[in-house]
């Protein structure tokens, strides 16, 4: 790692830690705890990032858009816009550029615009780390609210339970629209926890409710439309349980959120999508909602039963089995049950309502996981502070520690397995190392690389394209075109999952292995649990024709 890169990572770490202690207590012990917990969250997030540095197709839009903004600048002219990835690969519906604009703006002071030319893979890590720090900061903000609502011991357990959850920490730095929305929903949750733990009728409580509704409204309008259901559930609960003022709180917050959210996304996305929509106003989340929900196109990606979120997704996302015990335990404690109930009820309503839609994915309810963890941490804090009072509390506290350690270990195992699901990114990095040095230095310009579908879905991004003079072809051609031998003569390298389908004289250079399942026995039949791997992608080099050999071309 170069000196400049080291300085950049130190800046990120320091920024994350400062964010976690900005609202902490003034005592030395309290500040030390804040720093330690901030360091834990940041370290776990960065560990997931570095062990699994590549991205999948679901993250690709925001990754490519951030790259293009850093590499080419804002597309004030159509000439610049034509360099953008979404011009060639627009997808079925438009996506918002707001998140990419935010990430590029935050990474520019760290030298991203300069490094994207000299070291683009590093900039991809940089972009993801900035998003990860935003999510770490928002999680730490919830902890400070937990400190107020349930005590500092509960706050510590909130961080420990969250850090040991695989999905939150693994995806914290991934550029899914859900994870771009998560900082806003986390900040809203932090305010709601405070409101529900103090006098809800105070002026400060009203202000926090307005802020929470405002943040949820913006998140739903700009990033993910399903947050509108969570917003509706929280609003209904405020009006029914907390006697929130419709005129002074709900309507002003909603109108402000709608105005800011629409003004932001429509202005930004109309600008970036002007060629595809002829300059007409573009609101990506509305278009996506209409396409996926109203027209029912999301069902084409698969359907799940009503109970999927409750019986499958929630236990997996919480990971620690003790969380499923701690949540009902908290709700049984008279001192805090009303707070826990007020926190969870809107989240359960949101998940139940969203369960009516046939297409389901765990990431659609990721915003609810911190709320469930908050309630679980309240129970954990209650047990931990009483661990010396009885044998039963001691045994339960010991079980809690053991299950949390086990969850950390399970999370690390899942991290290793998940890192094997990105053969495309590994293959392109390997190809660059295999290509002759002379080609890498540009002596043979116009090197053409064909990238197959699996490679594109499992890690290939514009940040991974090291050589500007090379052509990385990501086009999905008709099968009849690919059966033409002349088609393959246009390429020097190919990264494909089915090498037997390539026509012509091609030499396999290397194979990239990926995850192929879990096995209980080894090849000899002995019991030996292990992760199975198999070759997912092949790197092929076209053999030179006699004419190319005589001309001295290097590929």
Automatic annotation (TrEMBL):
Subcellular location: Endoplasmic reticulum membrane
Entry membrane topology: Multi-pass membrane protein
Catalytic activity, as annotated: an alpha-D-Man-(1->2)-alpha-D-Man-(1->2)-alpha-D-Man-(1->3)-[alpha-D-Man-(1->2)-alpha-D-Man-(1->3)-alpha-D-Man-(1->6)]-beta-D-Man-(1->4)-beta-D-GlcNAc-(1->4)-alpha-D-GlcNAc-diphospho-di-trans,poly-cis-dolichol + a di-trans,poly-cis-dolichyl beta-D-mannosyl phosphate = an alpha-D-Man-(1->2)-alpha-D-Man-(1->2)-alpha-D-Man-(1->3)-[alpha-D-Man-(1->2)-alpha-D-Man-(1->3)-[alpha-D-Man-(1->6)]-alpha-D-Man-(1->6)]-beta-D-Man-(1->4)-beta-D-GlcNAc-(1->4)-alpha-D-GlcNAc-diphospho-di-trans,poly-cis-dolichol + a di-trans,poly-cis-dolichyl phosphate + H(+)
EC numbers for this chain: 2.4.1.-
TM helices/strands, residue ranges: 35-51, 97-117, 179-199, 211-233, 335-357, 364-385, 391-417
Keywords from the named record: Endoplasmic reticulum, Glycosyltransferase, Membrane, Transferase, Transmembrane, Transmembrane helix
Known role: Mannosyltransferase that operates in the biosynthetic pathway of dolichol-linked oligosaccharides, the glycan precursors employed in protein asparagine (N)-glycosylation. The assembly of dolichol-linked oligosaccharides begins on the cytosolic side of the endoplasmic reticulum membrane and finishes in its lumen. The sequential addition of sugars to dolichol pyrophosphate produces dolichol-linked oligosaccharides containing fourteen sugars, including two GlcNAcs, nine mannoses and three glucoses.
Name this protein carries in UniProt: Mannosyltransferase
């Amino acid at each position: 790692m170069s000196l400049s890169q080291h300085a950049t990572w130190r800046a990120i770490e320091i920024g994350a830690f400062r964010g976690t202690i900005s609202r902490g207590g003034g005592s030395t012990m309290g500040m030390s705890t804040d720093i330690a917990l901030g360091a834990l969250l940041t370290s776990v997030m960065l560990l997931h990032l570095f062990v699994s540095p590549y991205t999948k197709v679901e993250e690709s839009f925001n990754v490519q858009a951030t790259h293009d903004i850093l590499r080419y600048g804002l597309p004030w002219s159509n000439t610049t816009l034509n360099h953008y990835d979404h011009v060639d690969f627009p997808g079925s519906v438009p996506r918002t550029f707001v998140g990419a604009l935010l990430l590029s703006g935050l990474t520019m002071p760290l030298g991203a615009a300069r490094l994207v030319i000299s070291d683009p893979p590093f900039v991809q890590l940089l972009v993801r780390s900035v998003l990860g720090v935003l999510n770490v900061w928002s999680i730490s903000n919830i902890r400070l609210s937990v400190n107020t609502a349930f005590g500092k011991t509960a706050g510590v357990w909130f961080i420990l339970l969250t850090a040991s959850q695989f999905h939150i920490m693994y995806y914290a730095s991934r550029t899914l629209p859900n994870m771009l929305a998560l900082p806003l929903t986390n900040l809203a949750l932090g305010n709601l926890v405070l409101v529900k733990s103090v006098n809800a009728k105070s002026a400060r409580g009203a202000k926090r409710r307005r802020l929470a509704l405002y943040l949820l409204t913006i998140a739903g309008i700009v990033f993910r439309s399903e947050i509108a259901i969570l917003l509706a559930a929280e609003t209904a609960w405020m009006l029914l349980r907390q006697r929130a003022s419709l005129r002074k709180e709900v309507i002003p917050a909603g109108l402000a959120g709608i105005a800011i959210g629409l003004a932001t996304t429509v202005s930004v996305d109309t600008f970036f999508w002007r060629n595809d929509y002829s300059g007409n106003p573009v609101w990506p989340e509305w278009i996506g909602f209409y396409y996926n929900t109203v027209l029912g196109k999301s069902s084409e990606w698969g359907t799940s039963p009503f109970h999927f979120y409750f019986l499958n997704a929630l236990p997996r996302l919480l990971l620690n089995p003790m969380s499923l015990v701690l949540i009902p335990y908290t709700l049984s404690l008279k001192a805090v049950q009303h707070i826990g109930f007020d926190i969870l009820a809107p989240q359960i309503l949101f998940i139940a309502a969203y369960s009516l839609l046939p297409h389901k994915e765990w990431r659609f309810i990721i915003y609810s996981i911190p709320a469930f963890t908050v309630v679980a941490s309240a129970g954990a804090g209650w047990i931990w502070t009483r661990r010396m009072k009885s044998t039963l509390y001691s045994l339960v506290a010991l079980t809690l520690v053991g299950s949390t350690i086990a969850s950390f270990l399970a999370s690390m195992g899942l991290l290793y397995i998940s890192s094997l699901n990105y053969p495309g990114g590994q293959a392109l990095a390997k190809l660059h190392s295999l290509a002759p040095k002379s080609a890498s230095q540009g002596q043979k310009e116009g090197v053409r690389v064909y990238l197959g579908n699996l490679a594109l879905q499992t890690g290939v991004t514009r940040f991974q394209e090291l050589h500007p003079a090379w052509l990385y072809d990501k086009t999905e051609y008709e099968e009849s075109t690919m059966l033409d031998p002349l088609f393959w003569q246009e390429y020097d390298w190919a990264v494909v999952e089915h090498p037997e389908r390539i026509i012509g004289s091609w030499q396999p250079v290397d194979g990239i292995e990926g995850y192929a399942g879990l096995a209980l026995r080894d090849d000899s039949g002995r019991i030996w649990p292990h992760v199975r791997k198999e070759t997912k992608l092949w790197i092929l080099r076209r053999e030179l024709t006699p004419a190319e050999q005589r001309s001295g071309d290097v590929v």
